[in-house]
Amino acid sequence: MAKSLSLMIAVVVGGHGLIGLFIEGEHMLGIFTVDIVLDVIYLGTALLLVAVAVLDLSALTIRIIVGFVALSYLALLLAGLADRQLAGAAPTGLTLMDDVLFAGLAAACAVTALQPRPELPLWVDNESAGHPLSKL
Fold it and tell me: Which of 35, 52, 68, 77 sits CB 3.0–4.6 Å from 6 for a disulfide?
């Protein structure tokens, strides 16, 4: 489940960062800040999450990587609350929806990091994995 969640979060974050590269200096949909520093963070964390989803990594490694991404978004949230322009890194200024996005991504990554058996592949046969609901 952790690999699937990582892939879904990566698609959302990567899409946000990729679209943001084309509309620099404005707000996406009028509500999301798109500055180059944020786009690089979005794309970098999306690459980390895609690596978690597709590579054969240990449970500890997956938890460390996804936990790092969660802490990154939590740090962005706290820094954004302290300074809306992130000390000049986001000159267009963060919005309330950016804060909601950062909090949601941090929470989603935290849930992903806490999944039992995160090392299972994206597609796994429930019966061979010993899933308790496979007998239903």
Answer: 52
**Angstrom distance (rounded) from CA 69 to CA 101:** 13
Query: How many whole angstroms separate alpha carbon 120 and alpha carbon 52?
Result: 11
Structure-token pair, residue 102? 């950062």
Alpha-carbon dihedral sign for residues 19, 25, 31, 37: positive
- 133's CB contacts (< 8 A; 6+ apart) are 126
b/e per residue 92-108 (b: at least 16 CB within 10 A): bebbeebbebbeebbeb
What average pLDDT does this structure show over 31-40?
A: 83
Report the amino acid identity of residue 136: L
CA–CA separation, 100 and 59 (whole Å):
28
Distance CA 91, CA 75 (A): 18
Q: Which two tokens stand for residue 100?
A: 């909601």
pLDDT score at 47:
97
